[in-house]
Every structure is written in C-alpha cells, then in structure tokens.
Design goal:
The protein is mainly alpha-helical. It has 15 helices and 2 strands. The longest helix has 28 residues, at 198-225. It is globular, with a radius of gyration of 20 Å.
Length: 325
Amino acid sequence: MAGVSAAMFGSTPVLGKLALDAGLPPLAVVTIRTAVAAILLLVVLLPRRSLLSIFPLGLVGCLVAGALNGIGSLFFYAGLHRVEAGVGQMLFGLYPVWVALLLFLDGQRPSRLSIAAIGLSLPAVVLITSARWQQVDPIGTGLMLLAGLLYGLHIPINERVLYEVPPPTVAFYTLAAMTLVVSPAFLLAPGKPEAIGREAWAAVLGLAAVTFLARLALFSGVKFIGGLQSTLLGVAEVLVAVALSHVILGESLTVAQTVGGVLLVAALLLSGIDRSPYRRARVRGWLYWLRPPVPVGMLSILETQPIPRPLQTSIRAEDSTSEAG
C-alpha cells in the first residue's frame, strides 16, 4: 500500500504543473483537489458510519496533522509555480529525513537497514534530478523545503492515531482539516480565475482522484509497516515523477540520473526487506499526549515498547471479557 501511494503521489507534480500551466493559480489548485478528495472520501464512508467514529484525542491529532499538511500543500503548489517539477519533487522528497528525525525524538529507534536506506536515497534523489538544477528559484526552493518538512511532521502524528483508528477514518479527518485550512486562503486571496478551462478541470480533478486514493494507501501503509518505512518507500515518487516527465515532456535520462535510479532501487529494496520491529526507547516522546485509551494495566508496558496491532486488539478483548465475567 505504501508503494502504491508513492506511485500515485509521484504523478502530482506533473498533474499540478498541467493545472498551473492551464491558468489555475496555486491556491485554486490546492483548494479544489483537497476539497474534492475529502468529499469523495466522505461519500465512501457514509454507508459505513461506524468508520466516522474516533476517540477525542485522535480527532485532535488528525486535525493538527491535517492543518500542518494543509499549510504544507499551500507551500508545495506555490513553490511548484516557481520551480520545475523535477527539482521541486527532489526538494520535497527529502521528507524521509524529517520523518526519521521526528520519530527519533518520539522515542522510536530505526533499524540499521532503515538508516542505510536513508543514506542511499538522499544522493539518489540528488542524482536523479541533477539535470534540472539550472537557475533554481531560491524562494521556490525554500517553499518546497518547508512543504516537505510539514508533510514529514504530519506523518508521525497520524501514525500515533493509527494505533487505534482505521486508515479511512484518519484519511477523512486529515483531508477535512486540510480543506478547512486551504479554503479560506483561496477565498481571501485576490486574483481568482474567472473561468476554468477543460484542460485545467481535467488536471485538477485527476489530481483530486490521485489524492483520494493515495491518502488511503498511505495511511494503510503507515498503519501496518510504520511511518519511517512508508516514507522510505515513498521516495519512489521521484522515480515516477521522472518517468512521467520522460513520457509526457520527452525528457531523456542522463548518466547521473541512471546511477541515481540504481541507488534508489537499492534503497527501496533495503526498506522492503527490513522486517526488524522498531524499538522504542524508555521515554514518552513528544507525541505521548496522543496515546489512545488502553487498559490501566497495559500503560507501563506501552510506555517502554510498542505492542503489535493484532496483540493490542487481543489484549483489549481479553480484558473486556474478564471484566464482564
């Protein structure tokens, strides 16, 4: 699921560029795609209303993560308006570093394979986009880096919520919070488009569909393999972006890009074969406040090390049975 999410997210720079080139301002692009994706997800969840239930702190976590990601998406499309798609994706693609740092501060200790994958992925991303480093706009560069930082920040927050909440629920409330953040920025900004052409609609609706599906896949991946491994697989976005640029824009691969592709494949293989359970240090971490409600007897265990999702469910069921007896 994390790989599917990466493949879908890799198309967003190209679709975003098509929408921008068709005359849509950045705020219009991010607002339409986010709102439409949230509406699509709500339509899917309405027949199963139980999926809309969430514990209070989990809702707060989703809203915080969505607000951060919404601000980051404003930076992303504003930066994409100033830099080429390849350079922008490279700068944004540094977010696994931020995720690894934030998870480390939360008490998680990555395995050696994960550290090696990060070490290979960073030079790989630079090499893949090396041919596009010409007259890079410094403001656009800063906006893309900020977008990647905020995107990386929202993943550990959502990972905490995903301990107890299904991925579709987390995806909906996160997208809803993103919509609440980006919509006022669009409505209050000057220079709204008078009419949206057919090409712009096609690009932005395609972007919304990708966002809808990719979010579900992303949070499913984060739930079952963790935030760090999901983001490492997410580096494949760069490969997809370069491939689409080659197919749609006719760009050819250089020797440096080929070497970068080989390094990136190696990094993806390392993260794919890593089956080491992540370790948690004996600290509460900066996201401890998002801890879901658990039986009192389990608190001391959960504070020292995480328990796999199936085991948590089994323990809660046994605890409820014993209390009923």
